[in-house]
What does this fold into?
Amino acid sequence: MTNQPPAASRSRTRLAYVDRLRVAAAAAVVLVHVSAVGWYALPPASVDWQVANVYGSVSRWCVPIFFMISGVLFLAPQRTDAPKKIWRHYISRLFVMYVFWSSTYALVNMAVGRKWEWSYALQQLWDGYYHLWYLPAMAGVYALIPLLQRVAAVRSLAWYAAILTGIASILVPTTAIIPVVGSHWANLVSRVGPYLVAGFPFYFLLGHLLHESARELPRWVRPAAYVGTVVGIVMTAVGTSALSLEKGVGVGSMYGYLNLGVALMSVGVFLAFHDAGGTTQTGPRLAEVARWTLPIYLIHPALVRLIEELNVSPGLLPTAIGIPLIWIGVLAISALISAVLVRIPFVNSWLI
It folds into this structure.
């Protein structure tokens, strides 16, 4: 799910594994939000909450993968984009998209809550719906693309940047959760502050490096990455459960996309799709489905909200079955709507 220029300018060869990753990540992000229905209302000690926690944990790699895919595309060798082009073709589109969808969801919230005050409308518009954070976050990464492309042009420098910013991006928020020691470590790193490209640009660089270096990695890296995926899932699920049981309410700090467990999952998933797809090129059908991923991301929370309003809860069935069934339904309806929207002029260029 990446912000792309108009169709006429998209002529580069597409790799099937990248588009499969995009589709899988879109499906996973829907699972993240479906599994969160009622998450804060349920007691962490309940079986339903624990099952929802597992579903939510196992799919947390979705958003980092989106950023890693963008890194594969925008940091490709010999590619250079002037700041003017980035702002005109990509960031401007994200701005229009954010205003439109934020306005749409603001109207939905006003209608559902029957609040028609201007102050409430403006607050909803400014804050955006919970999933729309991704658009300004991506815009911030895009603004760095001309700099990141020059870093990525030198492999050793790119690895240095990834390691340096990985410490600030991943280790700091992860270790900050540890009682006593974590706060001191976070304070120490904040004094050094190597934050120029920390945060989600780290995943941008990581996606590029894994794509370009996949065939050169030592043999032990892949088994370690796949084991790391399992470890990441366990870290996220068990850590979230432990913190929540301690507080008596759901605590989602381990769910953060910049935590070590989520980063480990993301690396393993990325390499698994890369190894399975190799250099196979995207076929027409896969390209079409991949085009639906951004609208699926933008649309599906409205369906999740409808489910909540109608009191359609995963708990109507055993949660282990209810969540997947609702997930499949939301994903299918979102895909059908997306398949229509991508065929509408202007909408397909600026709003999705």
Remarks:
- The chain has a mean pLDDT of 89.
- The chain is about 70% helix and 0% strand.
